Amino acid sequence: MATTEVYLSGKAKWAKVYKPDEKYRNWTINLYLDDDSLKKYKASGMSMAFKEDDDGSFVTFRRPEAKLIKNEMVKFTPPKVVNKDGEPISDNIGNGSNVTIKVIVYDTVKGPGHRLEAVRIDKLVEYAGKKETSTADLVGVPF
């Protein structure tokens, strides 16, 4: 199989597309695939494990900060993030946002590999962020 581009749509959760995670140094996005995208995913040969949570089944797509390819360290930039009109944006992606991702699928000795290339936000859900806890919230809370 040659390197191909696959476009997958669905609801996003835990999108870390502007800054890689600290532990594994990957940009990531969890995607709850819609029915058409599930068919495309299966046809692509990608074999990442589906995970489950209260919202259903999802797959985590990744883009490494750097990767050893043919004995050469290749550095990657963050995935491209655009709005539905194709304009670059930097809004945080809230859980439940409708997105379409571009994934590169390529051959490896272990089967098809993937790399997240881009994210198009079709319908943005505002990012709620972490709720700050004040000392007033802790009154009466046992330790």
Describe this entry's structure for a reader.
The protein has 143 residues and is mostly beta strands. It has a single domain, classed as OB fold (Dihydrolipoamide Acetyltransferase, E2P) (Beta Barrel), CATH 2.40.50.140. The protein is 7% helix and 45% strand. The protein is built from 1 helix and 9 strands; from the N terminus they run ββαβββββββ. It has a 7-stranded mixed sheet with strand order 3-4-2-1-8-9-7. It has a two-stranded antiparallel sheet with strand order 5-6.
Summarize the structure.
The protein has 143 residues and is mainly beta.
Keywords:
OB fold (Dihydrolipoamide Acetyltransferase, E2P), seven-stranded mixed beta sheet, globular, two-stranded antiparallel ribbon, 143 residues, 45% strand, mainly beta
**Helix percentage range:** under 10%
Find the structural class using helix and strand composition: mainly beta
Based on DSSP secondary structure assignment, what is the total number of beta strands?
9
Relative strand content: over 45%
Mean pLDDT: 90
Shape: globular
In CATH, the homologous superfamily goes by the name Nucleic acid-binding proteins
Enumerate the strands of the largest sheet in spatial order, edge to edge or round the barrel.
3-4-2-1-8-9-7
Highest-level CATH class: Mainly Beta
Question: Major sheet: size, sense and barrel closure?
Answer: 7 strands, mixed
> Helical stretch count?
1
Distance between the termini: 57 Å
Enter the CATH topology name.
OB fold (Dihydrolipoamide Acetyltransferase, E2P)
Question: How many separate domains make up the residues?
Answer: 1
- The value of Rg in angstroms is 17 Å
At CATH's second level, what is the architecture?
A: Beta Barrel
State the order of secondary-structure elements, H for helix, E for strand: EEHEEEEEEE
